Structures are given as structure tokens and as C-alpha cells.
């Protein structure tokens, strides 16, 4: 029994015990009085014990309630911390938290991948040494508020970031000591955006250049015809022929630009029609036969008439093969042969090869052939009427058709442009349908048997 219990009992029985002791010392107490006083002492002790027990129960209930509330608050804080940790870890941007000594307190997985190491507990300069970046961090630590800085990392692949450096308050429950995070660093990858902006600038510059050249020629010839050659019929005929040629060049360029724009709008909607490739190629070859004859080029064909149709837009696929075959005729060397071959690649796809026997394409040019306005030989391309957009159009149409363009070339021997397209219905599906039809006739479909 603790001292507080003894004190409580003594205080409860003290009055009766003192009276009993005085009466006993005077010898004037009767037996029944002594018995009553003894009972009073016992009753007082019992009341003291009961009050003590009740008080302790009340204290324990309050203590348990406070403990439960504290545990609930602790669980809530733990949950919030776990959610915050999960959010930070799942963010696609690299995130760093630094203390006032510029040491990394924590970082997400993307941040570790960015610096290719775990910088926790180390100065962030051990992984990223850009002076402007480190200066922005120091200014934020010194109280200058949020900072923003451009950062370019050259390896492993050149990547551009906008880095935001912001002051943060310590998380709940963490004392504001030197190890508490006080700076948040967020890396936003803007590489694709910057490249897109550059592509737009280059595109506008290329279009302006392509249109300016024929317009300059037209303006010059018009001034000549209205001036020195005003009364010269021979100059009229010669200059008007050139002006018509330049006008047609501008018309082709504008037509290709409009075509490319329409194709890009539809690029994410898959075509629903079915196209028989041999029939399409026959129509195309018939259309280009006079041009081939004029150039002295023989077009030979090689395909199986039983090749299944592909899923596609007939007009767009016609445009694909028209661009490829037209290029083969123009650049495939006069007096030689161009081959159009269709072959079954596998059970799901076919491949159309357009093969020329021209001068070939240097290997360094192959990766860029489908870029807008990219030309292997710009002067020759313009001379032959090319706009520099044909293969870009081919690429976007094939993207819509879930197809692929592959180019192989050997200097002095020619080039092969191969287009791979998926069948409208795979041969496995055709076999399944045939089996289902047979089962329907027999009345023994597999699903009915399994049921």
C-alpha cells in the first residue's frame, strides 16, 4: 500500500480514533461507546478506501482517454506523413528537400535517378554543380524567397529543366533544428516543350524560305516583263513558262502543307475501312505509267493476289505509295528499273517494298528523312519539284494506320522503302471464324460443349 493510501485512511479515521484514545485514557468510556467508536473508525477507513478507489478509477479513465486521443493524433500524423511520403515518391518530377546547410534531407526515386546516386546527408553540390542552381539555393536559404532557374544537363541525354527552389516549413512534430528541411527543390522537365518550340520556329522559317524563293522569282519576272522585256515576245514566252513553274511549285507546297495538317488532325483516330493493297497499287502504277515511260524507267511488280486486305483509309494509303513510288521514279536513275513488291511478313502484317536502283542515300541522312523540309540534296529536290514534305506525310499517315516505314540504302546500288501494315483481320481470326462457322453448322460450338 502506497503512502498516499495510508494518508487517506488516517485522515478519515483520525477524529474517531482521537476521541476513543482520550476516553480510554480517562477511563470513562463504556463498552458500548467504545464499540460504536470502533465501528466509526472502521466505517471511516472503508469510506476512505472507497473514495480512493473511485478517484483512481476516474483518473485511469481520464488517462486512458488521453492516451487514446494521443494515439489517434499520432496515427493521424503517421498517416499524413505516409501519404505525403507516397505523394512525393510518386511525383514524376525530381524532388529534393535540403536543410540549412544545403544537405539533402530526403529525395524521391526520380531525384536519385537524376543524379545517379543517393545524396541523403550530403551536400547537393556533390551531385549537381551548376553555379546558377547552387546560387539560387543559397539565396533561398538566406531568406530571399522562392527562386527559379534554368538548368541543362548534357548527359546521358541532353535534358532541360526549370528548377523551382522554395522555402518550406518543417513537418509537424519535427523541431526547427539545423537538420530540419527548409528548402524544396522541384525539377520540371521542359525538354519536349523547348524542342517543340524550336520545331515550330524551324517550321515557320522553312515555310517562309520555301515560299519566298518562288515569290522572289515571280516578282523579278513580273518587273522584267513590265519593264525591259515589255515588247519582247520571246522573253514573254520564256519568263511566263518559268513563272508557271514557280506558281506550280508554290501550289504543291501549299497543298502538301494542308494535307499534312489534315493528316495530323486525324492521326489519333484509327481508320475503319479495308483496303486491298494489290488493287490500290495497280491503280497507282497505271496513273504513273506515263511519267515512268517518259523517264525511261520500268516498273515491275511482285505480289500474290490472295494477300488479305489491310485496315486503312484508301485515299491516304494511295498517297503513301504515290509519294514513295514518285520518289523512286525521280531519284532512282533514268533508264533503270523500279520494283514494287508485296509480301506477307507474318500472320498479322504485310510489307510493301518500293525498290529503286539509283545512287543510294548516305547512311547519315537516313534517320532524318521523315523530317519536314529535310532533303538529302536540296538543289536537286527543288529542281525535280520536291517540297520536302512527302516523307513527313508518309510518316504521319502510317502512324495513324499503326504502320511502320523502314528505309535501307546502299551507295551506288539503290534504296528500299518498306511499309509494314497490319491486316484488317489476322489469319488466326479468320481461322477462328471458319471454325466457329463449322461448329455452328454442326451444332457443337466449343462454348456450348464447355457449358
Could you please describe the fold and organization of this structure?
It is a single chain. With 451 residues, this protein is of the alpha+beta class. 55% of the residues lie in helices and 16% in strands. The chain contains twelve helices and twelve strands. The strands form three sheets. A five-stranded antiparallel beta sheet has the order 2-1-5-4-3, sandwiched between helices. Helix 1 packs antiparallel against helix 2, helix 7 packs parallel to helix 8 and helix 8 runs antiparallel to helix 10. It is elongated, with a radius of gyration of 45 Å. The two termini are 78 Å apart.
The proportion of strand residues reads 15-25%
Q: Residue share in helices?
A: 40-55%
Distance between the termini: 78 Å
Topology order in helix (H) and strand (E) letters? HHEEHHEEEHHEHEEHEEHHEEHH
Question: Biggest β-sheet: count, sense, barrel?
Answer: 5 strands, antiparallel
Average pLDDT, to the nearest integer? 79
- What structural class do helix, strand and pairing data support? alpha+beta
Shape: elongated
Unreliable residue runs: 431-451
Provide the gyration radius in Å: 45 Å
**Helix count?**
12
Number of strands: 12
Q: State the oligomer.
A: single chain
Strand order of the largest sheet: 2-1-5-4-3
